[in-house]
Amino acid sequence: MTVKHYFWIILITFLFGSAYPVQKIIFNESVPPILMGALRMLIVFICLIPFWKFKIPQRKYWFPLLGFAIFMGVGTNFFMNLSIYNANIVSPTIIGSQLAIPFGILFSSIFLGENVSFKKWFFILTSFFGIILISFDPELKNEKVALLLISFMAFFYGGSQVFSRYLKDLNVTQTNAFMGLTGFIILILISILFEGNLYTNIININLNSWILIMHSALFVSIVGHMSLFYLYKLYPVKKVFPFYALFPVFGILQTIIIFKEMPTLIILIGGIIVIMSIYYLNKLD
Fold this sequence. Notes:
This protein is mainly alpha-helical and 285 residues long. It has one domain (3-284). The chain has helices spanning 3-28, 33-52, 62-86, 91-96, 100-111, 118-135, 144-165, 172-194, 198-203, 207-234, 237-240, 246-259, 265-284. Helix 3 (62-86) crosses helix 8. The longest helix has 28 residues, at 207-234. The chain is globular and about 45 Å long. The two termini are 17 Å apart. 45% of the residues are buried.
């Protein structure tokens, strides 16, 4: 990998890490979490329309495309936002999101018949152990709901990767545009049902929150993910994906700077266990 691409992958993981503290700032400004997810998906959809041009894929892609859109655009967004919204301490939520990797491997084994070696099983178990260890931290007695919600987010993110395997021949802009459209429609309906008056909620969003929502949509969802797919075309996945373990490191560092959060010893130990497990799981691919 060239020096330029090393810097690029570090920037990508920095952007991924920024998603959590940025969304916490948005929710601290009283923006409803489900509405925020809907607006993020709407921006993604609008930005990708010129590349998608509403091309209809072959019938064989319809079910996996819908599955990917629901699992990634709806399920992942829904539970991630609710988790961050309910969290008083953001760093455990960032660490918990890493369970998406072992969930993805488990789903690939069950639904795609992919072989899971003994080493992978070991690191899958250690990653779950790290999260369980964090959940027993006395300082996190009020964070149980947030940790449970982020586990559901990881479940849906891992599931979306299985659907994406069936879509590898489709243009990534097409899959992400459809994801944005589906995510927006379903999330905006849920927001209307459970978060009150839609018009009032939208006009009450201040300029600072709109800028941060744009950051989440443009830089995290589009620039971050599209850049990652670009690097996949240049290098083997096993060379790129281990860097994914940097994203929680950057995320935790940003929460320390922004919110003055200092992780407890148990969070640090559990976080190291999870991050190292994810690193070696990626390394084994």
